[in-house]
Amino acid sequence: GESVGLHLPTLSVQEGDNSIINCAYSNSASDYFIWYKQESGKGPQFIIDIRSNMDKRQGQRVTVLLNKTVKHLSLQIAATQPGDSAVYFCAENIEIKAAGNKLTFGGGTRVLVKP
Amino acid sequence: GAGVSQTPSNKVTEKGKYVELRCDPISGHTALYWYRQSLGQGPEFLIYFQGTGAADDSGLPNDRFFAVRPEGSVSTLKIQRTERGDSAVYLCASSLAPRDRGTGELFFGEGSRLTVL
């Protein structure tokens, strides 16, 4: 498969440290936000989502924060592991039934975990 | 299989040729999406199927691109008169729809890498 992330901003993090990935979204009407992880040669994989009526949501080792005032989304990964090395994309969606789950993706951030 | 399956995984063609890319979604998923991902960028929406019909094809870049899903399961993305700018990874995703029944999480395949020489 294609290798992604050759020209993406890169976050280098020491194994065991926490990672914070930021994303600015574009559409103030968006009401659903998702973080995806993409490893080289693979398709994006769902990590966590959040709706616009929330400002924080936690999963296993991950937390997503949403600031609608400044249209900012962040993903926090606790105790980063080598398997977390990948490109991370935020995506936004407007909850219109006819639109299904059509997503608008951001540009992505590559996370490199150093042992 | 359990996931979204896409074939071929790699396709190299010459400018001007016709190409078909196939997507086999997760069984029972009524919604199917095609996205295109250029190197170093996020996926860009192309088209969305709900069942057999294209509910939204606003992302198709021009009339050289066409997609079908005749039986509401497998979908084929067709590209006529390919151009070098069509080179990208074409990703297919499926989900349970409509989203108000759940998260509407998209499950992506591994993509078909198209290279137009």
The largest chain-to-chain contact, stated as pair and per-chain residue counts, equals: A-B, 33 and 36 residues
Mind telling me the C-alpha Rg of chain A?
14 Å
What ranges of chain B have pLDDT less than 50 throughout 5 or more consecutive residues?
Answer: none
> Quick one: how many beta strands of chain A?
10
> What is the N-to-C order of secondary-structure elements of chain B (H for helix, E for strand)?
EEEEEEEEEEE
Give the overall average pLDDT of chain B: 92
The share of residues in helices of chain A is: under 10%
User: Biggest sheet of chain B: strands, sense, closure?
Assistant: 7 strands, mixed
Shape of chain A: globular
- The number of helical runs of chain B is 0
Apparent shape of chain B: globular
**N-end to C-end Cα span of chain B:** 32 Å
Instruction: Output mean pLDDT of chain A.
Output: 88
Polypeptide structure, described:
The complex is a heterodimer of chains A (115) and B (117). Chain A is mainly beta and 115 residues long. Chain A has strands spanning 10-14, 19-24, 32-38, 45-51, 56-58, 62-67, 72-77, 86-93, 104-105, 109-114. Helices cover 0% and strands 49% of the residues of chain A. In chain A, the strands form two sheets. In chain A, strands 1, 3, 4, 8, 9 and 10 form a six-stranded mixed beta sheet that branches. Mean pLDDT of chain A is 88; it is low at 1-5. Chain B has strands at 5-7, 10-13, 19-24, 31-37, 44-50, 53-56, 65-68, 75-79, 88-95, 107-108, 112-116. Chain B has 117 residues and is mainly beta. Chain B is globular and about 35 Å long. Chain B is built from no helices and eleven strands. The interface between A and B is medium-sized, with 33 and 36 residues.
Descriptive tags:
heterodimer, A: 115 residues, mainly beta, six-stranded mixed sheet, four-stranded antiparallel sheet, globular, disordered N terminus, B: 117 residues, seven-stranded mixed sheet, 11 strands, 0% helix, 47% strand
